[in-house]
Design a protein that fits this description.
Elements (H helix, E strand, L loop, with lengths): L22 E3 L3 E6 L10 H8 L3 E5 L6 H5 L5 E5 L6 E2 L12 E7 L2 H10 L1 H5 L2 E3 L7 H9 L5 H7 L9 E3 L2
Parallel strand pairs: 2-3, 2-6, 4-6, 4-7, 5-7
Antiparallel strand pairs: 1-8
Length: 173
C-alpha cells in the first residue's frame, strides 16, 4: 500500500514541505521544462521552484508542442539558462527602465537529459543563452561536483537568484 502524498508538493503527507515554501513575486517569468524522468526524483526541485515563484510555470515532457506559444509571451524577452560559448552572464540582464522583463527558460534534468530537450526542441536551442556566471561554481568545479552528484542546476539557481531579485517580495504561503 502506497503512502498518502500531499497533492501540492507530492511529498509523503507526514513530510509535507508546503508550509516552508516561500511565495516570491518576480518581474522575471520562469518557464521550467522538466524531463519526465525527473518528476519522481526524491527532491524534485523544479516543482518547488514552480511552487515558490509566483511567475513560474512547470511543464513536463521531452517534446513541447506548444513551445512557440510559451516562448512568444507578449512583453517578455526569452532567454535560455544553459551554458554556451556565447552565453551572457545573467547579471547583464538586470532590468533598465523600459527594458522588457525576462522569460527565463530553464531545462530541468541531468546535463545529458537537458541537452536532449534542446535537441528535440530546436526552438529552445535557437534562444539566446544566459548563464549564472562563475560565482561559487566555476565550470571545472561543477564538472567535479557533478561526478559526485553535488552540482544541480537548481541549487545553483537558488544561490545566484540575486541579479533578478530586484523585483522580489517575499511573503509566506
Amino acid at each position: 500500500m502506497s503512502r498518502v502524498r500531499c497533492e501540492r508538493c507530492l511529498r509523503p503527507e507526514n513530510h509535507c514541505l508546503c508550509a516552508l515554501i516561500p511565495q516570491l513575486d518576480s518581474r522575471t517569468r520562469v518557464l521550467l521544462l522538466q524531463h519526465p524522468s525527473e518528476v519522481n526524483h526524491a527532491l524534485n526541485t523544479a516543482r518547488f521552484a514552480a511552487l515558490g515563484l509566483a511567475n513560474a510555470e512547470l511543464r513536463v515532457g521531452e517534446v513541447f508542442e506548444d513551445l512557440p506559444r510559451l516562448l512568444e509571451r507578449p512583453g517578455y524577452q526569452a532567454k535560455l539558462l544553459f551554458p554556451a560559448d556565447d552565453a551572457q552572464p545573467l547579471q547583464a540582464y538586470t532590468a533598465a527602465p523600459g527594458d522588457l522583463p525576462l522569460l527565463l527558460v530553464v531545462p530541468d534534468g541531468t546535463w545529458r537529459k537537458a541537452r536532449k530537450l534542446l535537441y528535440l526542441n530546436p526552438l529552445l536551442a535557437a534562444l539566446p543563452r544566459v548563464t549564472l556566471g562563475r560565482g561559487r561554481f566555476p565550470a571545472t568545479d561543477c564538472a567535479r561536483r557533478r561526478r559526485r552528484g553535488r552540482c544541480r542546476r537548481w541549487r545553483r539557481l537558488s544561490r545566484r537568484w540575486k541579479p533578478l531579485k530586484h523585483q522580489l517580495r517575499s511573503r509566506r504561503c
